[in-house]
Amino acid sequence: MPLISVLTAAHGDRADFLVEAGESLAAQVLPAGWEMEWVVQEDGEKPQLADAVTAFGFARHEAHGAALGAAATRNLALARVGGELLHVLDSDDLVVPNGLAVSIEAFRTRPWLHWVCGQADDLMPDGTRVPVSAMLPPGLIEPGMVSDHLTAYELPPIHPAGMTMRTLLTRAVGGWAGIPRNEDNSLLIAVTELSFGYLLPEVTWLHRKHEGQITTGPLYSDLVPTSLLVVRQRIAALREIGLQFPPPPPEKKAAG
C-alpha cells in the first residue's frame, strides 16, 4: 500500500500541543489504499514525549538525547521515514481532517508533481481561525517562482509547514540546511527551484499562534540575516548550475 509519512521534530515542553497534533492526524480520512505513519523525533537532553506519541498506533517516537536544533532533528527523522510522500507537521500545528487526502489527490491527478502546498488558517489562542492571505494564486507553480518572491521580499510566498513533498527529492537535496534560522526555507527553496509544484486552493492546515512560538522570541531575529544569506546563496548556486526537472506534459483538453 502507498504510504504517506508525517514528520515532526519536537521538544519535551510541547507535549500538550503534540497530542493535539496527533489527534488531528488520527482524524485524517485518506484515499482508498493509502496508509499513514507519524515519525516523531524528539530534540533535547531529557526526552519526555515517548508516552504521548506512542499512544497513537500510527506513530513512532525516537529521542537522540541531545539539543541539536530543528534542522538536525528533522534530518534524523527523515532517515526514519518510509513513505513515498512526506508531509512536515510542526509540533504545535494541526492538519485539518481532509488535509492529507487533498494533497495526495493532487499527486495522483498530476503524477509529475514533486511538491504540493496547501493554504493555512492561523489558529488563535482563543480557538478562532483567521485566514492567511495567499501571496500566489492557486495552481501550477513553476520552478523559480518561490525563489523570486523570497529574493524580492525576504519572505517566501508559501509556508514550508504546508508542504507535502516527494521523499526521494527531499533526500536528494540534503533535507534541511544546518543553519540556525530559515532551515525550513532552505529546503523549500531547493525543492521549488528544481521542480514544478502545485498550490492548492483548499485550507489543509492550521498555524497555531501562541506565546511560546520560537519565531516570535526576542533572540530569534538576530540570526535571521546570516541564515537568509545561506538561502540566497543556494538560489544562486542552483541557477548557475542549471539543475531542473523537465517540464510537465501539456494538459489534455476535454473532449468536445
TrEMBL record:
Question: Entry's InterPro entries?
Answer: Glyco_trans_2-like, Nucleotide-diphossugar_trans
Q: Which domain of life is it from?
A: Bacteria
Q: Which organism is it from?
A: Fodinicola feengrottensis
Q: Would you tell me the protein name for this molecule?
A: Glycosyltransferase family 2 protein
Instruction: List residues of the Glycosyltransferase 2-like domain.
Output: 5-109
